[in-house]
Amino acid sequence: MADGELAPAAFPQIGEGEMALYRLFLRRGRFTLDEAVRELGLTDEDATRSVEVLIDLHLLRTEPEEAGADTPPTYLPVPPSIAAAYRVAPVEADLRRQLAEAERARAQLLILEEVYSAGRPHAGAHRLDEILDLATVLDLIERLAVGCRTEVMTVQPGGPREPDQLEQAITRDLAMISRGVRMRTLYQHTARLHQPTQEYVARITAAGAEVRTRTDLSGRMLVFDREVAILPHRLSLDGAIVVREPSMVFYFCGLFDQSWSFADTFVPLRQWDNELDDVKQAVVRLLAEGMKDEMIARRLGMSLRTCRKHIAELLDGLGASSRFQAGYLARARPDLAGPQAQSVG
């Protein structure tokens, strides 16, 4: 806000006194303050304050014709929709002006992006940037998606994504695919049970994308054109680390390709079935390692409730009285234990 510029006045609160007074004016059409005091039994101070609030909100206006300077003003009620237009319009105009100024400032600052890149030590290829706010991260992803030429690789751990996130991503992803960009995405197996994720995957795979799933994924990652990698920030949940150093990006791409080769094609599921036996194996393995329910759920991308239900079914099926015992008994069950679980202990 510029020096000398006044901040928009705060909206006064409408209380019981203002409501009673406004109803009175609506019944009578027009009224003086003295009449309102007598009719409602208010004090002069309370009536004056309530009238000032209603006038400030443009819910009352004074009668234009006055008999004389000593004549008490007569008030007329104003429809709330009209009052809202008068009272809110200046605030909305101020917000639009501030947003326009913010966009102009952003555009001016982004002009210097190339200067910044060229002027840093080891300019261009050797870069590691830290972003701490979500809005800047999302803006960067949008810009990288628009400029993506050949390939995008995505790792999305944590089970199903939120429907609003999927809705925001679909337009951007279909635009990349339509330009001939190869899109590969890795989810965890639990995402196959999530209907919004099923619908999203159906749309992008129909357009040419590839989606696979694994039991466990190391962490969230986006890689554009094998040149820029976006990783989660260690301390900031809304932040990210942007990597442009070629050797580091090459390493991340190698990790993705290795995970991709061991992943399964995304197949929608309606309930836990035999196609998710590797999830059961993972639960047993983590139980045998002594991991808590909360950690297992987070590791495998499922809700805590689903995780505990799954554990209860495994305990019942194995005839085990404890989680550790379930892990021990499962090592003798090749159908549940799997090679990793059998090697535990």
From TrEMBL:
Could you tell me which Pfam families the record lists for this protein? GerE (PF00196)
Family annotation (CDD domains) = LuxR_C_like (cd06170)
HTH luxR-type domain location, by residue? 273-330
Q: Which domain of life is it from?
A: Bacteria
Q: Which residues form a coiled coil?
A: none
Supply the Gene3D superfamilies for this chain: Winged helix-like DNA-binding domain superfamily/Winged helix DNA-binding domain (1.10.10.10)
List the protein's name.
Answer: Helix-turn-helix transcriptional regulator
**Native species:** Catenulispora pinistramenti
